[in-house]
């Protein structure tokens, strides 16, 4: 991958965080306003925590992207209230996963259900991201995730890939996605510079049941980081160079899963940009 292409991806990279206590202060301490920050939704932390965190970040000058987990929304009335709230906060981008709420809180059993309803509301939302899984989902069968991505393509503006630590799997999967006719830009999900002990600590903050799901969904992260040498996000990106350089693959950006290790992730990103000769690694590509 060319240095300029990698610089562009790193300068525009967005961060995913969990809405735990104190996360807004930590972001404002280590990350320059202007960066896109996505805020997860989980039953252990509540949708209110997601929305409140997103509102605070947007007010501080970040581009906040709340995750609106379909199975956590009670129905059309609550969805309308959420959209009104986001409009007042100036938030125009959302990410819509199905979520893990069991049973669903209301009328939306899947992300597609919510997306269909969303189109009839004329909301102030201009960008909508949906999930994609290069590797098997720990709960949902592969054929279901593939069909779901196809079904959602007409309602979304981008797809965001879940974590995968094998560049070969990512390359093969993305080629198949494009061959199926899904042309939405892909925001490539990668893990940031994450320490295993800190990752385990995050899991304890989100409730017992939620923590169990968190650990199960991120088994690959623990396994990879427990190996000698751990995980190196730069090496991962370098091995994906042919995909990142190929316009047909449609890589639209990087989505860095921070697991709330904001300081470490931002320090890693800045270091990579400095190594690439970037004169201002804190700047953001608009």
From TrEMBL:
Keywords assigned by UniProt, alphabetized: FAD, Flavoprotein, Oxidoreductase
Family annotation (Gene3D superfamilies): 3.20.20.220
Reactions listed under catalytic activity: (6S)-5-methyl-5,6,7,8-tetrahydrofolate + NAD(+) = (6R)-5,10-methylene-5,6,7,8-tetrahydrofolate + NADH + H(+)
Family matches, as InterPro entries: FAD-linked_oxidoreductase-like, Mehydrof_redctse-like
The protein's required cofactors: FAD
Pfam families assigned: MTHFR
Pathway entry: One-carbon metabolism; tetrahydrofolate interconversion
Family statement: Belongs to the methylenetetrahydrofolate reductase family.
Protein name: Methylenetetrahydrofolate reductase
């Amino acid at each position: 991958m060319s240095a300029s292409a990698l610089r562009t991806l790193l300068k525009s990279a967005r961060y995913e965080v969990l809405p735990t206590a104190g996360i807004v202060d930590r972001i404002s301490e280590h990350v320059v306003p202007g960066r896109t920050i996505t805020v997860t939704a989980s039953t252990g932390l509540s949708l209110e925590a997601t929305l409140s965190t997103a509102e605070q970040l947007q007010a501080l000058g970040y581009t906040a992207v709340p995750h609106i987990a379909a199975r956590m929304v009670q129905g059309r009335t609550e969805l309308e209230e959420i959209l009104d709230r986001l409009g007042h906060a100036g938030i125009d981008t959302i990410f819509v996963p199905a979520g893990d709420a069991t049973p669903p809180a209301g009328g939306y059993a899947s992300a597609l259900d919510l997306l269909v309803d969303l189109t009839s509301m004329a909301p102030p939302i201009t960008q909508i991201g949906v999930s994609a899984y290069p590797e098997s989902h720990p709960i949902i069968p592969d054929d279901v995730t593939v069909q779901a991505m196809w079904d959602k393509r007409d309602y979304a503006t981008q797809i965001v890939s879940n974590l995968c630590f094998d560049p070969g799997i990512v390359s093969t999967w993305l080629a198949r996605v494009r061959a199926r006719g899904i042309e939405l830009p892909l925001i490539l999900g990668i893990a940031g510079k994450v320490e295993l002990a800190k990752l385990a600590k995050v899991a304890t903050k989100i409730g017992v049941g939620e923590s169990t799901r968190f650990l199960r969904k991120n088994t690959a992260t623990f396994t990879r980081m427990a190996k000698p040498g751990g995980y190196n996000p730069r090496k991962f990106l370098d091995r994906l160079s042919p995909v990142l350089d190929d316009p047909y693959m449609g890589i639209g950006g990087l989505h860095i899963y921070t697991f709330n290790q904001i300081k470490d992730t931002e320090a890693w990103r800045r270091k990579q940009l400095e190594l690439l000769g970037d004169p201002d690694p804190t700047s953001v590509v608009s």
